[in-house]
Amino acid sequence: MTGERRESGNEGFRSPETGDALQRMSDFHLDVLREVSNIGAGNAATSLSTLLGKTVDMRVSRVFPMPFNEIIEYVGGAERMILSVFVRIEGGISGNMLFVMSREDAQSLVRHMTGATETEEQGFSEMGLSVLHEVGNIMIGSYITALSDFLGFELSPSVPSLAMDMAGAILAFSLSEIGRSGDTAIVIDGALSLDGGALSGDGAGHIFLLPDPESFNKIFQALGVAGNGDH
Amino acid sequence: MATIRVGIAESGVVLNPNSVSTLGLGSCVGVTLYDERRKIGGMVHVMLPSTELAKGADFNRSKFADSAVPDLLQQMIRSGADQRRLVAKLAGGAQMFNLGGEADSLLKIGARNVAACKQALALLRIPIVAEDTGGSWGRTVELFSESGILEVRAIGKTKTQI
Prior knowledge:
Helix content of chain A is 39%, strand content 23%. Chain A has 231 residues and is of the alpha+beta class. Chain A has one domain (23-222): Chemotaxis protein chec (3-Layer(aba) Sandwich). In chain A, strands 1, 2, 3, 4, 5, 6, 7 and 8 form an eight-stranded antiparallel β-sheet that branches. Chain B is 18% helix and 33% strand. Chain B has a five-stranded mixed β-sheet with strand order 1-3-8-9-10, with no helix packed on it. Chain B has one domain (3-161): CATH 3.30.1330.200. With 162 residues, chain B is an alpha+beta fold.
């Protein structure tokens, strides 16, 4: 990550108060990461489609550098209740992955898969939570398999863990390793449409890839696009 | 009454009758200081335990317990607080995910944050008068400068005042 970098016209691309190297990533490299996300989320969509027995569309992946506090707003605000499944990846690259859904979408998904009536007031049954845990597990697992094939890296994921809590609490924990290097992360957001937009919430499951800062160069080297991005 | 909102790795000091709050603490810790006579309250949202974890020399001091807590004290003093009267309260430091046996340092970050905040306060000889830490749930906290009460809210739990 040395050498001159192309200036980007992307708005909100850097915040002046910090000198994070992540904020100086070129548009070209952000596009490469978008492709990585498309490949991972595409495979996850195929798996979910098989699981649900219906079409699952991948939405356009979004990739951008963002200060931590804005990331939490992006996910709906610090106090917004979200369902999340967390996995830590080690191996050729390291980082954290999160499968995230709104509470409403999670309830719709459980209804679809079990026929049970999970209502907002009742929260989730044990079976509902176990279904969501498994969906998150499959989503992240498929994503990692595709990522590993694409990059040619061995990747070993931790045991997936589920939490249903405030977005701020979940995201800040997931960003703690990145926090050692700065106050900004590259958000790699791969989204799957769960029910053709008919669900409440935003109708999507999101798979966030949050690589440790040292891993970006490894990704670019594996894909033969290391350097300053002036390709 | 106005409420000042403190984000991740940010701090704020308020005078009577205002309050200072931070939303959705997970493994992070909200450290508050309070001067009862002057009715000055301060809060910092600590993300990591030690500046030794910082990669690079240029870091945000409000993010690490060992720099954030002394800096909050200085902010309080500049706002007119007397260090000898200050008392501290803590909230947060949860373990949001249970990853079984793979309890490496990353996953214990909440407990490490709490321990580091306590150590930083001990070094400054500021007594801890209340805490709501640990567990596996997120917390929203608000410190009221009028009373020094720290209100803690969590999803599915009764609001508490400490």
